[in-house]
Amino acid sequence: MRIESASASTPLSLLSYAQISMHKTGLVMITLGWLLIAGLLWWGFDRYLEPNADLSAGTAQGPILLKRSPDGHYAAPGRINGQAVTFLVDTGASNVAIPLATAQRLGLRSHRAQRSHTANGEVVAYATRLESVSLGGLAAQDVAGSILPNMQGDAVLLGMSFLSRFHISMRNDEMLIQP
User: Fold this and answer.
1) Residues of the domain holding 171
2) Each residue of 116-130: pLDDT tens digit?
């Protein structure tokens, strides 16, 4: 003889709801965990690719320590005439070299045309004067610049017209620029 109870299915139903609820909670926790891991990896990889991205303004005329990026360059945020740019330090460049699109965004005026010798050969460049150039706590006024119409990208080459005003030393994968 078999006895059935109306309440016999209730505990099973509650158990099923509890299992479903725990399963959903588990999925949410796993998803949040993976999102956290992905975010940390992104942050760490971004810091690896751009080690100088958070270069602070520093103290007035204070030293700047740049770390070499994985591509072998020293890149850092800076300012031309008070406007934000990304510099690529280039001790082989005579002047601060600016792509045409960046020069237009900065509102720079071009002057006489001149021939410049670059790593990619001879190019036409247009002379300009930069009221101010700053990198962290280092700043210079009245800096010679060159606008290059065929220069690709938006990074500005921070050349010797700025760098020669400071003392530069390199050791391992770091460049120290001091007043």
Assistant:
1) 64-178
2) 877 778 889 999 999
Say if residues 142 and 95 touch (Cβ distance below 8 Å). no
Same domain for 161 and 76, yes or no, is yes
The bridge status of strand 64-67 relative to strand 174-178 is: antiparallel
pLDDT computed for residue 13 by the predictor: 59
14 and 102 belong to one structural domain: no
Q: Chain centroid to CA 15: how far?
A: 53
Residue with tokens 């505990």: 11
Bridge-based pairing of strands 96-99 and 64-67 is: unpaired
Cβ–Cβ < 8 Å for 64, 58: yes
**108 shares its domain with 20:** no
User: Element (H or E) spanning 22, and its range?
Assistant: helix 9-49
Q: Which residues pair with 118 in a beta bridge?
A: 121
The string of pLDDT tens digits covering residues 44-99 is 555 555 656 666 544 456 788 898 988 888 999 999 999 999 999 999 999 999 99
